[in-house]
Amino acid sequence: FLNKNVNAEGKYWLKLTTSYGASLVQAVTYGQGATDALEAFDSKAMSTGADAFFSSVGTEKLVIQGRAPFMVNDIVPLGTKHFESGSFTIALDAKIGLFANGQAIYLHDKQLNTYTNLQNQNYTFSSAEGEYTNRFEIVYNNGLLATAEIVKSDFEIYRENDHFVIRNAKKIDSVEIYD
Predict the structure, then answer these.
(1) Are 41 and 101 in contact, with CB atoms under 8 Å apart?
(2) How far apart are CA 90 and CA 10, in angstroms?
(3) Distance (Å, whole) CA 170 – CA 111
(4) What is the pLDDT of residues 70-99, one digit of tens each?
(5) Residue 117 burial (CB < 10 Å; 0-12/13-18/19+)?
(6) What is the pTM of this model?
(7) Which H/E stretch holds residue 95?
(8) Which of 36, 126, 145, 158 falls between 20 and 30 A from 113, CA-CA?
């Protein structure tokens, strides 16, 4: 089965703005021919200077990261470096392809365990000076959409002629089927 999904391509730019006037931009791009390993589609951060904003592959810091065609369960690790303590904002700067069509881009702050959809709002946080490589990541499924475990015997789905029949002890508002 060959499935060429043109919706699996897109690019977005993230911008980190500091309280002392610095702005740093990085890009994440999904497309045919790229992989999630370090390769020609990536652009390393040549130096991190006093402030930095980057994604990473292993120990390599990148300002442009080319990734394999988009998968909703992908995770992009992010790092920041701050010249001094302050307030910082991460925002979606631009987007094309599937991200221009509304695909959610969640910034997961692992320190505070918060998810912010950058398609809807910017994320402002406080940080001390220094480099942080494990605080942030980009995810496309925030994990909060999961449902509690159901008991198999309480849920039935089967096909009857040209229709699917769903039976459940609790009310179901909607059903989505993914292939």
Answers:
(1) no
(2) 19
(3) 36
(4) 999 999 999 999 999 999 999 999 999 999
(5) middle
(6) 0.75
(7) strand 86-97
(8) 36
